[in-house]
Amino acid sequence: REYKPYETMPGEQAQVDWGHFGDIVENGRRKKLYAFVFCLSWSRISYVEFITSLNMAVFNGCLHRALNYIGGVPATILFDNAKTVVSERVGTAVRFNPELLETALAYGFTPKACWVKDPESKGKVESNVKYVKRGFYYAREFDNLADLNDQARTWLAEIANARVHGTTGCIPQERHKEERQYLKPMPSIERPLPVFETRKAT
């Protein structure tokens, strides 16, 4: 296999991934801590949100806040093969989660799923997850989940999106000003998107 950089046009693609960050005690209960990481492929502007659940309602909320953060909607969003994204996959044939398709239709983007067990196919956001672990979370002190997310937003504004990116040689915040004009406007969603869950009872 030949590995070479894959660059996209402004507004063409965003990438989404999740990272596991150990455990956190929330309301007296120990829970797994994850980070939802979103990256615009051209400008490399990033959004990070720490969460304790990977269900569809939390995923929709994270995606909504990420799109609000970048101020628009890219043409395609590349996801991992999580259950909230892919219901079934046979080779290159992908059956997306129906609720993800509802979300994509409401916001106006095309969902895409990367190859299974192939982190290189979404390498931009993969490197961002590693950057969040090394550059932000390592040895970080925080009081609770809300405090951690407040610190993450400050870190995004003052460090992650304000530094000179190693690949592009540009500052993501500055490049994002140019890319933003190529994004679709955020839709006026009057009510939260419904989330359906199936339960089996004996």
Our Rg estimate from Cα atoms comes to 17 Å
Distance between the termini: 48 Å
**Low-confidence parts:** none
Tertiary shape: globular
Strand order of the largest sheet: 3-2-1-4-7
Fraction of residues in β-strands: 15-25%
Amount of helix: 25-40%
> Which sheet architecture does the biggest sheet show?
5 strands, mixed
**Strand segment count:** 7
> Helical element count?
5
Judged by helices, strands and strand pairing, the structural class is alpha/beta
Compact description:
With 202 residues, the chain is an alpha/beta fold.
Structure description:
32% of the residues lie in helices and 24% in strands. The chain is α/β, with parallel strands linked by helices. A hairpin with a 2-residue loop joins β5 (86-90) and β6 (93-96). The longest helix has 16 residues, at 145-160. It is globular and about 55 Å long. The relative contact order is 0.20. The model has no long low-confidence stretch (mean pLDDT 85).
Protein topology:
Layout: E1 13-26, E2 29-40, E3 46-51, H1 56-70, E4 76-79, E5 86-90, E6 93-96, H2 98-107, E7 110-113, H3 123-137, H4 145-160, H5 172-179
Parallel strand pairs: 1-4, 4-7
Antiparallel strand pairs: 1-2, 2-3, 5-6
Q: Which descriptors would you attach to this protein?
A:
202 residues; alpha/beta; five-stranded mixed beta sheet; two-stranded antiparallel sheet; 7 strands; 24% strand; globular
